[in-house]
Amino acid sequence: MHATLPRLQDTRFPALRRKRLETLQVNLGYRCNQSCLHCHVNAGPKRTEEMGRETIDAVLAFLRRSGATTLDLTGGAPELNPHFRYMVGEAVKSGARVIDRCNLTILEEPGQEDLAEFLAAHRVEVVASLPCYLEDNVDRQRGKGVFETSLVALRRLNALGYGVAGSELLLSLVYNPQGPSLPPPQEKLEADYREQLGSRYGIVFSRLLTLANMPIQRFGSMLISQGQFNEYMTLLHEAHRDENLDHVMCRSLLSVDWQGFAYDCDFNQMLELPLAGGGRTHISRLDAAGLEGSPIAVADHCYGCTAGQGSSCGGALGD
């Protein structure tokens, strides 16, 4: 695995400061039932890191005192954490909106047979990875058989009301490019997804989110190996738009790793870039009131969020 941080630290990316905290994004661990080529977490079946119950309680306590309204759960496959359902239940009790960043195939894993029903019962918003509506493209990026299993999972979610018009159960699909290119316009691609998934497979969903691939971890290492890293960074730099700066996710989001340490975003977490000026800070010791107006740690990978239409965990910026 090639390290990318040394290539990213020398940057001219504009200085940023935080707005009011709205979203607490929590990585519950790096274990996953897939090993995707684009994964910026380098997650996989052999990873063992996972958040423990004590840390989860500390995160929930911070969520309550911070005023954040959304708990965004990610991984790896967050559902593989043995305390996932406990955390969801406690967050829902506190009135938080809960998002599960789901790879779909986890719904078909042994021991997860009732997961979809659990998510529906707790009104959890499902944000599901489906990087293409074509089988060959998905399987090439995520592994043989993933597309077909994903369709089975999507049909299960649809049957529960997820993504169905008029339903409160939100099902968002996530697209990312196959290689070192920017996502196409989100609105046009969403229309293509709806037509292809609907006509071919009878599948419906709430919205499509387009995400740019970040030049870090597994994807960044692949770019270095193929001699494409500098070319991709040039693409991101040249496509930068200042108007996207006001909407980047780090201004209203806080990322927490599996050990409970806080970062400005999930990408900084993977690069081990701590909160600006604060060093490594555990969520149990973090002053929620002092976050607003504080500086954000930036490096060259940040251009991945401001290039073109912009990119965030919520899809294209401004959409």
Distance N to C terminus? 35 Å
Instruction: Give the C-alpha Rg.
Output: 19 Å
Q: What proportion of the residues is helical, as a percent range?
A: 25-40%
pLDDT averaged over residues: 91
Form type: globular
State the order of secondary-structure elements, H for helix, E for strand: HEHEHEHEHHEHEHHEEHH
Q: What is the C-level CATH assignment?
A: Alpha Beta
The CATH topology: TIM Barrel
The CATH architecture designation is Alpha-Beta Barrel
In what range is the share of β-strand residues? 5-15%
Which class of secondary structure composition applies to the elements? alpha/beta
Residue ranges: pLDDT <50 for 5 or more in a row? none
Q: Helical segment tally?
A: 11
**What is the β-strand count?**
8
Task: Tell me the major beta sheet.
Answer: 8 strands, mixed
Total separate domains: 1
**Spatial order of strands in the largest sheet:** 6-5-4-3-2-1-7-8
Q: What do these coordinates show?
A:
The structure is a single chain. The chain has an 8-stranded mixed sheet. The longest helix is centred in the middle third of the chain and has 16 residues, at 186-201. Helix 2 links the parallel strand 1 (23-27) and strand 2 (70-74). With 319 residues, the chain is α/β, with parallel strands linked by helices. The chain has a single domain, classed as TIM Barrel (Alpha-Beta Barrel). The chain is globular and about 50 Å long. It has helices at 5-8, 53-66, 84-93, 115-121, 135-142, 146-159, 186-201, 217-225, 229-238, 266-271, 303-306; strands at 23-27, 70-74, 97-102, 125-129, 171-175, 207-210, 253-256, 262-263.
